[in-house]
Task: structure prediction
Amino acid sequence: MADITDRQMSIKPGPRDIWLNESAPKGHGRFMARIRPNGERLFYYRYTDSTRARVRLPIGSYDRDGTSGLTLKAARQRARELTELYLSGVTDLREHLEAEEAARKAARDAEIARLEAEKAASEAELARQAARKTVSELFDHWARVDLIKRKDGGAEVRRMFNKDVLPLIGHLAVEDVRKGHITEVTDKLLSRGVNRMAKQIFSLMRQMFRFAVDRDLIDSDPSASIRKAKIGGKDVERDRVLSEEEIRALAKQVPAAGLLVTSQAAIWIALSTCCRIGELLAARWEHVDLNKRTWLIPSENSKNKKAHLITLSEFTAQKFQQLREISGSSPWCYPNTDCSGPVCPKTVTKQIGDRQRKPGQKVMSNRSAMAHALILPGGKWTPHDLRRTGATLMTMLGVLPEVAERCLNHTEENKVKRIYQRHSYAREMADAWTLLGEYLSKLITNEQGAQKP
Result:
């Protein structure tokens, strides 16, 4: 018997199966082909198993081009491989091949499972990376939930973070922030000499990271191991009070300091009413009655959320009258440039600070060139020091300390007094503001002669 040919494999099917055989040495298996009446063409390997039974083991279907089956050459090669296996002592090829196929299937399944697990892990990691919040995103989240509750809607904190925090660490994933990243922010502030701001920004960063811990965005607060006292040294309570000589000097220096008239008025109103500068800059004309000489600080503008009615002395009323003429039809005493609201609460503080720079310090860009115009002998002063100075002058003029405290709108610390002492001190407070205004008017008038401050 000769070898099977492609021509034989292509003959027309008959009414019965047509078998084609290739010769093989005795004891070897035989390569065979089968052409079925339906046109199907199949390859087999025939051998004798351990029970002496003849077995036809299917090899595959025929396809001359090898696209949908085995070519004749490939089928013959497979038959030779089976012969080698058979001669090696494997007498039950079917069982052996089934075991091999099962092993191959298990290996394929294991590989598929491994690839799917790797893919799932990769997708999970990508999802985790995509879900990681950056510090900037955390800040926005914190601002929407917590900062929005603040009086200014978080505007001042956002300004501070946009300037000094987010440019340094805003791009970092929150979970990647370490102690060193936080101290990098505070160290930069300390290098500018703004120690108090460094402490304030550190406290705000700590609040933000604790917000993240509460929401399981991070496991621990990276600022937890940093002691606030180590940032810029221990807080020192300010006790700056302007002396009479300094108030007289201020009366001469303010007009020549290049300040807006409204900012000049703010200095004297803050000194003569003991108000907070932020309360003044947020004032609306609907709360000022120049006829009755009163100014109501509503609860939403007050630090302790308590409304505060101030009696305006002649001295203070004149300053408010100046503001009235300048602000025109605006509902705000200190309108911003487009009259859509009040000016920034830091406006006057910055203007005063810009004019008290040390002799060796350079003039800051986009700031006043009058860098030393408001320096006083007692050292740097702020609008808040004017509040303290006004209260101090009141007690010097004989006002009871308890009345001066009421003029400051401080909350009574003694709980018993707070509950049972209900006297309003309205008349005493009005007298105290009047007394302070008269004193300041005389003090400044004496310095400037007949001129008004």
Observations:
- The domain at 244-448 is CATH 1.10.443.10 (hpI Integrase; Chain A).
- The two ends are 131 Å apart (CA to CA).
- Residues 120 and 126 are 10 Å apart (CA to CA).
- DSSP finds 17 helices and seven strands in the chain.
